[in-house]
Description:
The protein is of the alpha+beta class.
Amino acid sequence: xxxxxxxxxxxxxxxxxxxxxxxxxxxxxxxxxxxxxxxxxxxxxxxxxxxxxxxxxxxxxxxxxxxxxxxxxxxxxxxxxxxxxxxxxxxxxxxxxxxxxxxxxxxxxxxxxxxxxxxxxxxxxxxxxxxxxxxxxxxxxxxxxxxxxxxxxxxxxxxxxxxxxxxxxxxxxxxxxxxxxxxxxxxxxxxxxxxxxxxxxxxxxxxxxxxxxxxxxxxxxxxxx
Length: 225
């Protein structure tokens, strides 16, 4: 039996992120301004062709698979990377506090875009904030760290956009934000997970220390029609 997280984008679009779902019973996609993730119920050449014909706009898209897949020729592979999919199996310490964390709203989107463009934690665009639960840390009026939620293949919820301005590294901001996200997700009776580039050893060590365990190496394809 396949695991829900083997096809996280598809299972998110039929459960926790269903409100964003475009497509049909075989292929699905998010609105262009929300997220570039696309998915198929099963990986096959026919479904890739159907996905190509179904998406009504041009853009870059991201397809996730639990192994390498053959991409039909009409798609252009812009980038390919391996990511570790890590699931939280640790304990939430009683001293995890949200002191100093600010709920982020649409008014913060320009700063959020600036920070994610600087640090490149993964795709973040104009309406990505609509996934919800974004929190940030500020130095005065300047957003210096943030994290939030992305894919929600219930009962799992993905922590995403974990990033810190380079001038503020080493202060524990990412860990604080991440553990508060994990605490919130666990309180909602869901299980936190995340994706991290396989070569990002520094981040992987941080996540392991916080209680995340690698479940599987996943293949990420950045595609263009």
